Amino acid sequence: MSQFDFTEHPHRRYNPLNDTWLLVSPHRSKRPWQGQVEKSAPDQRPKYDPKCFLCPGNTRASGDVNPQYEGTYAFTNDFSALLEDVPEGSFENGDLFKAEGQKGICRVICFSPGHDLTIPEMETGDIRKVIDLWVKEYSELGSKDFINYVQIFENKGSIMGCSNPHPHGQIWSQSIVPQEPAGKTKNQRKYFENHGTSLLSDYLEIELKEKTRIVVENGHFVAVVPFWAVWPFETMIISKRHIQNITQLSDSEKDAFADIYKRLTTKYDNLFEVSFPYSAGIHQSPTDGQHHESWHLHMSFYPPLLRSATVKKFMVGYEMLAEPQRDITPEFSAHRLRELTEVHYKKSD
């Protein structure tokens, strides 16, 4: 019998951040890019759209008017999923029926006044302004006594539920630490207590030696396809320095964050020559007043595209009923992304 090879044989991989497993079936997709590769319609938008609720000077659905902003702009979401003035309360009926009130604040972050831009098409200096605004919002929201976690994220593309193409992201802050970061808090703390180092510092040390899953790198950050990635082109940006949250970034690290954010998303767009959709978000220490020494700042990207601009990855069947599964290996995905140019395809002609 042949020797086991995880690039050829079905196997499970462990995610130490989430304490979960996934099934990898590389034999099902030996040559995933054979056959026709389709392109979607070009993403062409005007610099200003008078009907856009996020463009400078326009009236939003709430009736509020955006200022004539020239850089970034933040405002409280007109249709927030969380509200600040929710009274305290809970419901419980035995062990099976439980509910509790939840307070929070949701913010919208406009990355640029240009309606026609996305992160990979913005200048690095302008992306740095987005990071500066993230830091400001994280600090101000996290300082409120009823806010214990601040989730910064970006949904790009209509298939990721983005209802407005204007370049923007969101921040949801709330009174509890949600399930995903709560799990990461627990698992990183456990690892730190056992090893005296952060989980992602030790993980990154191995990735930097092997270099098989690294996509792009600079002096302060590494973008890698995680060994345990579920989505076909899932990536994670990890800070080389062990820091807990974005308020601890130096000026040079903020510049480097902007640089790698642009370079990674440019490769995404170049993969299928389309405005590449994804959900991305920053995971960092809670704002609950506790000392989270074990936390390590990182940003995860979850894109749905698989083989072309029109072929997507779906979570169905076994994945909904048992556990996540993927065909192409993280090593293959990293190689595919790594080999792409960092010149945006719209500028390559």
Describe the structure.
The protein is α+β, with helices and mostly antiparallel strands. It starts with 10 loop residues before the first strand and ends in an 11-residue tail after the last helix. The protein is globular, with a radius of gyration of 21 Å. It has six helices and 14 strands. It has one domain: HIT-like (HIT family, subunit A, 2-Layer Sandwich). It has a nine-stranded antiparallel beta sheet, sandwiched between helices. The protein has a three-stranded mixed beta sheet with strand order 1-2-14, with no helix packed on it. Mean pLDDT is 93; it is low at 31-36.
Structural class: alpha+beta
Q: What are the low-pLDDT stretches, counting only 5+ consecutive residues below 50?
A: 31-36
CATH fold type: HIT family, subunit A
Order of helices and strands: EEEEEEHEEHHEEEHEEHEH
- The CATH architecture can be given as 2-Layer Sandwich
How would you describe the shape? globular
Separation, N- and C-terminal Cα atoms: 51 Å
Question: What is the makeup of the main sheet?
Answer: 9 strands, antiparallel
Question: Can you tag this structure with a few keywords?
Answer:
349 residues, alpha+beta, HIT family, subunit A, nine-stranded antiparallel beta sheet, three-stranded mixed beta sheet, 20% strand
Helices and strands in order:
Layout: E1 11-15, E2 20-24, E3 73-76, E4 90-93, E5 97-100, E6 104-110, H1 124-142, E7 149-156, E8 168-174, H2 179-195, H3 199-210, E9 214-217, E10 221-224, E11 235-239, H4 251-272, E12 278-283, E13 298-302, H5 318-321, E14 325-326, H6 330-338
Parallel strand pairs: 2-14
Antiparallel strand pairs: 1-2, 3-6, 4-5, 6-8, 7-8, 7-12, 9-10, 10-11, 11-13, 12-13
